[in-house]
Amino acid sequence: MKERKNGLFSVMSRIEGMSNQFTKTDWKIVQYMKENMQEFVSCSAQDLATQIGVSDASVIRFAQKVGFSGLNEFRYILQSELERENTIINQNSYTSLMHDYNTLTETLFKFTKPEYVDLLRKKMLKARRIFIAGMDLNKNIAEMAGHKFMLLGLDVRVITTYDTLKLFANLATKDDLFIVITLSGAHQMLADALGRIVQNESYIVVISNYERSLCSAYADLTFLIPKTNLLENHDTITREIYILMLFDIIFLNLLEEDEKSHEAFQKIAPFSSWNQKDND
């Protein structure tokens, strides 16, 4: 980061260009600046002299040597350029993050096959009960998705613990539908529960990062969520957003293709854009 700033700061570039003119004292000041830029632009000449181990006059002479009337002007220009550089860095970071989000969104829509969404809609409408299972970090997602589909009048149950999943796995029937969120797809306890659900002939949908995993092996239908690990901002990006986005796609398909779902949603959302479309 320091090298990047040195290349962009006009003041620091000027200092680098004058390096053959500096005394040992000057170099001590330069070194302190590079390592403690914020302190340099905020401390008095006396404080700087004490911290660097030089005299007050040496600090002032250095400011004049690099082309300023004194320390105050030197610090003012440094502060201005520091703020400008931070703004550029932040803007570049935001641009990079936006690019990563756009990449993931485009990938999600490429992964999500329309025929799979249509098939899931038909299975959801036909199912006696719909279970949305999300354990550990996926609990909140399962709860939000469950509430969303309840608005359409569907019989949706949310499962957020392995014990509850095990219970319903044993009670499952061929008329039930299980939508399971597991990005890694590698949880043995979850796989065991899915194995029991398969024995009871329930339909299983898995939402995962991996098409072939321990859990997806039990799925009748798998929806892929794009992985973030190769992106520059992978530690910043919230992957759960893309699972919710997938549920939005499924929700939209129900509204557009199923009249009863549309009517149910209109009753609880009288001011939605859907009503406005009908009135136009």
Protein model, in words:
The protein has 280 residues and is an alpha/beta fold. Helices cover 62% and strands 9% of the residues. It has a five-stranded parallel beta sheet, sandwiched between helices. It is elongated, with a radius of gyration of 30 Å. The two termini are 56 Å apart. It comes from Laedolimicola intestinihominis.
Rg value: 30 Å
State the end-to-end CA separation. Answer: 56 Å
Q: Which secondary-structure class do the elements indicate?
A: alpha/beta
- Approximately what portion of the residues adopt beta-strand conformation? 5-15%
What is the H-and-E element order? HHHHHHHHEHEHEHEEHHH
Low-confidence runs (pLDDT<50, min 5 residues)?
Answer: 1-8
The major β-sheet equals: 5 strands, parallel
Helix content: 55-70%
Shape: elongated
Summed over residues and divided by their number, the pLDDT gives a mean of 86
Tally of helical runs: 14
Strand order of the largest sheet: 2-1-3-4-5
* E-strand count: 5
Give the tags:
alpha/beta, 62% helix, 9% strand, disordered N terminus, 5 strands, 14 helices, 280 residues, five-stranded parallel beta sheet
Write the layout of secondary structure elements.
Layout: H1 2-8, H2 10-17, H3 24-35, H4 37-42, H5 45-52, H6 56-65, H7 71-111, H8 114-126, E1 129-134, H9 139-150, E2 156-159, H10 162-171, E3 176-181, H11 188-199, E4 203-208, E5 221-224, H12 240-257, H13 259-268, H14 273-279
Parallel strand pairs: 1-2, 1-3, 3-4, 4-5
Helix pairs in contact: 1-2, 5-6, 8-12, 9-12, 10-11, 12-13
